[in-house]
Specification:
single chain; Thrombin, subunit H; 2 helices; 5-stranded antiparallel β-sheet; 17% helix; alpha+beta; 102 residues
């Protein structure tokens, strides 16, 4: 469990909140959250909270794939199982207002 000196990444599947609740019965997943991971024991672990869940989308203006912050690691039951992430898109308005105030 030593800390890595390089940035690590893993490709994890997105999972419906309904399926996530069935798999993680001790965790209530709200609409402002996303479930991901659990595939081949890839997911966030202790110490990863606050880390990014990124997703690629086609930027039609630039005509190329772009990475976007989809979620922020929040909680899970054990390393390698599905994890629950805060859905950043639900907070975009608040983030933009907060940035403008500074």
């Amino acid at each position: 469990n030593a800390k890595s000196k390089v940035k690590l990444a893993a490709s994890v599947p997105f999972i419906s909140n309904q399926d996530c609740c069935r798999t993680l019965p001790n965790i209530e997943v709200a609409a402002n959250q996303i479930c991901a991971g659990g595939d081949l024991e890839k997911n966030a672990c202790q110490g990863d909270s606050g880390g990014p869940l990124m997703r690629q989308y086609l930027d039609k203006i630039a005509d190329r794939m772009q990475w976007y912050l989809e979620g922020i690691s929040s909680l899970g039951e054990e390393c390698g199982s599905m994890g629950v992430y805060t859905r950043v898109g639900r907070y975009t308005s608040w983030i933009l207002k907060t940035i403008e105030m500074k």
